Amino acid sequence: MSKDIFIKIYRLSVGMLILAAIVVQFLTFKQKAVDYFSYFTILSNLFVAFALINSTFKITGQRRADIIRGAATLYILITGLGFIILLGGKNDEFIFWVNITLHYFAPIVMSADWILTPSVKIHFKQSLIWILFLVIYLIYSLIRGAITSWYPYEFLNPTVIGYQGVIGYAASVLIGAIILSSIIVKISDGKNALQN
Distance between the two ends of the chain, CA-based, in angstroms? Predict the structure, then answer.
């Protein structure tokens, strides 16, 4: 089996596993569907699944596929690190294997995929657009939370920690995201330097 075929098989397999985990958890979710898809964990893992399947079949072309893969790596790292740091690694709502898949397995596999497989050179300015999704997500969560009184995470709930606390957490996440983006770009630079 060639290296290219192996990469395609594992990317497709991991992408399908993540989709299966999301579907299984959704079928047991007792709240509104819109609440389920308002969790960053779900959105980031959907993005990862798309990025891996897209990279398998080159649906968007190589360059766009790699930029999407870089963004997916950022989002899933935020999910994994946020789960451990901000939520203490605790989740009583998710099925055990789903929790492991979405919060641990996906971040590890996606990070390894970015580090170990080739990608086009990505400039730091290009990576900053990845941050835009995080900003939109934070704004969406706060506006919808103010309307429905439901927030996906306690650290985004101003009725619990106040708006000053929410701003502090949001700023920390965005700063962390910029740092992670720069690392992802540096890895891309390093891979291209080795190839040349």
Answer: 26
Does pTM surpass 0.85? yes
Angle ∠(103,50,145) on CA atoms, nearest 5: 60
b/e string for 31-69 if b means 16 or more Cβ within 10 A? eeeebbebbbbbbbbbbbbbbbbbbbeeeeeeeebbbbb
Tokens standing for 39?
A: 């969790």
pLDDT above 90: residue 190: no
Residue 195 has pLDDT above 70, yes or no: no
114-172, pLDDT tens digit by residue?
999 989 989 898 899 999 999 999 999 999 999 999 999 999 999 999 999 999 999 99
The region that residue 117 occupies, defined by phi over 0 for left and psi between -120 and 50 for alpha, beta otherwise, is: beta
What is d(CA 36, CA 152) in angstroms, rounded to the nearest whole number?
Answer: 9
- Rounded distance between C-alpha atoms, residue 77 and residue 95, angstroms: 21
